[in-house]
Design brief:
This protein is α/β, with parallel strands linked by helices and about 325 residues long. It is built from 10 helices and 11 strands. The strands form 3 sheets. The protein has a 6-stranded parallel sheet. Strands 3-4-5 form a 3-stranded parallel sheet.
Length: about 325
């Protein structure tokens, strides 16, 4: 029986249910919160409430995508899980460069040292102190995947080093890789670098790729085996939902529905019902999924997106 490390311990992959493939449940400080207070999601009570909406809509496990050094708090994630019963899948790795000060240690440490830090979080336990130093306090909760992040239209030298370190961590542990693409850009280069680092495309999730709704690009990336994660539904500031529906439809018609994932990425107080905002964590299941049914997507299609595809990304 294959299990996935979560805030509730190892969970059989078939028990994960409908998986939100890209979310933020706790953001407890960090440079981005200082710059934009709307990103502060530090209340366990509010998170329990918001996760409750997700569960009431039929949601299961949640892939939390806030790595160390920019607001991750493993103990708070565990408290949310214990109160709600929802398993949260914890990351190790790095956000995009703007989430850190220019002198952050990621720019100074070499590839081997960074890989060792990632591997320790995957095999021993996530650091409660977020590798902010000087002390490391391992949680019993292990990270289950590695995050790396590109910037707009470029992959910076430090990011290339972090990708090589992520490749070492993948080869040592089998952990999948989640990639932040800035507005969907630089995805082919990021995938090339990961593949060169020893990560098969079938273990890579390219996040936010629907913000660059170029079907030729999406077919190429999915055809290589990468998972494409869409998250603009419910956030109309990016684009109408018809754009995402057409992307989904065309990829299913091309025989590539097995490479699609959906996530909320509701990383702001103004997106949460618990803080008086919207669309809420439940939007994808309560509103968008019924629309997909009405647009002609079958229950088998929906099961693929919500359950089977996340399981394959996580387990290979």
């Amino acid at each position: 029986m294959t299990t996935i490390e979560t805030t509730l311990g190892p969970v059989p992959v078939e028990k994960l249910g409908r998986v939100n493939a890209h979310e933020h449940i706790i953001i407890d400080g960090g440079l981005t919160v200082v710059n934009t207070p709307d990103f502060r999601l530090d209340s366990v009570e509010k998170a329990i409430e918001e996760v409750g909406y997700w569960q009431a809509a039929g949601g299961g496990a949640i892939v939390d995508t806030m790595p160390f050094g920019c607001g991750r708090n493993v103990d708070k994630l565990a408290a949310v899980s214990q109160a709600s019963g929802a398993p949260i899948i914890v990351p190790t790795g790095f956000q995009k460069s703007s989430y850190y000060l220019p002198d952050h240690w990621q720019h100074r440490y070499d590839e081997a040292a960074i890989a060792a830090l990632l591997i320790a979080e995957l095999t021993e336990g996530a650091d409660r102190n977020g590798y902010d130093g000087p002390l490391v306090a391992r949680s019993p909760i292990k990270a289950a995947f590695v995050k790396v992040a590109g910037d707009y239209q470029v992959v910076k030298p430090t990011t290339r080093k972090l990708i090589r370190a992520a490749g070492q961590a993948h080869r040592a542990t089998g952990a999948p890789i989640l990639v932040h693409t800035e507005l969907g850009t630089a995805a082919p280069e990021l995938l090339d670098l990961l593949e060169a680092a020893g990560v098969p495309p079938g273990r890579v999730m390219l996040s936010h790729i629907d913000r660059n709704p170029d079907m030729r690009l999406h077919r190429q990336l999915a055809g290589r085996g990468a998972f494409l994660q869409y998250d603009t539904p419910g956030r109309i500031k990016y684009q109408p939902e018809t754009v995402v529906i057409n992307l989904l439809r065309q990829l299913f018609e091309a025989g590539l529905g097995s490479q699609l994932l959906l996530g909320g990425d509701t990383a702001r107080r103004s997106y949460w019902k618990a803080y008086g905002g919207g669309p809420g964590l439940d939007y994808l299941l309560a509103v968008f999924t019924p629309r997909l049914r009405a647009e002609g997507f079958s229950e088998a299609d929906l099961r693929l997106i919500w359950e089977e595809n996340p399981a394959r990304w996580l387990t290979g």
